[in-house]
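Ticket #346: bound-state structure for zinc ion.
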Amino acid sequence: MAHDLERIKERISLLEYLQRHNWRPCRAGTRQEFVGLCPLHHETRPSFYVNPQKNLFYCHGCGRGGDLIRFVQLFLDLPFRQSVAHLEQELRPAPASELLAQTVTFYQLQLHRHPEGIRYLERRGLNDPAIIEELGIGYAPGGNLRGHLAGLGYPFDLLLDTGLINSQGRDAFCRRVIFPCSQRGRIVNLYGRSIGGAFPHRLLPRSKGGLFAWESVSSFSMVILVEGLFDLAVLWQAGFRNTTCAIGTQLTPAQLAQLADQPGRSIHIAFDQDENQAGQKASYQLALRLKSAGIQARIVQLPHGHDPNSYFIAGATAADFTDGRARLGGWLRAIAKGRAESAYRR
Ligand SMILES: [Zn+2]
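RESOLUTION: The complex was predicted; output attached.
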């Protein structure tokens, strides 16, 4: 027991615990002590002293003091053993989804503080604040995630293991627009699109999860499958809420199973038209796989060098995409540079 208690105190200091629970020192006192308002009684003048070296506190207002466990007993009004259990609970690594949710909230806030993030979204044709909010899009300016998460009590090693920061403590997603990838209401990964010269795409080193927004898209009998999240975002913005994304052209078995989870669904594959034909080949192979699974699949043929996102930027509107061909399932025509070429081939 004594050993366990020492271990707890080693892994979580009194000051760290206090800060996790929103205690903020007003000033440093003498001899490297911190002084703030007492969390144990109401006061207006700070009389709560913390000595981080000795890991002890003392309040001159209410006369109480002691170590971390004593503080927890008083703060939560718990007996000794339950206070120890509470601290052990606190030390368990938080579920990754909780950590990712905190990260996403933080990056969403940064998007509104850093005009370069918004400017990038505008450049990619995304300007509807409601869609930006709904997709949970954020921006990582770099350099400040670690401090924020440490303030919430997340240890450095956990952030490193999750891949959110590098070994220097810097944001792994520095200068990237962030999309959270969720599954059944829990964030399972983050996708970061570089706005500068770094490699364009980045995911955390963990599963990318199922198809994007599948909970809402799966109810449609006609589904548009795109390669990238910016394709999805501009299509959603134009009203095509039946668009999902696999983040890349290689679907995982779980994602394939999702596409096939309802009989009679038709899938319109709208991958990028790449110079090296990679998107076209992937579309064709996927269409074959879907057909062999009994799913109707069509390939949306965009003009050379385009993806759905670049199409919208080139001036296409929702009407252009549906014009005259709605009976075939919604999205069917896109505007080429000359605004004449049909972009759709069955
Ligand atoms: Zn007090």
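RESOLUTION NOTES: The longest helix spans residues 96-111.
TICKET STATUS: resolved
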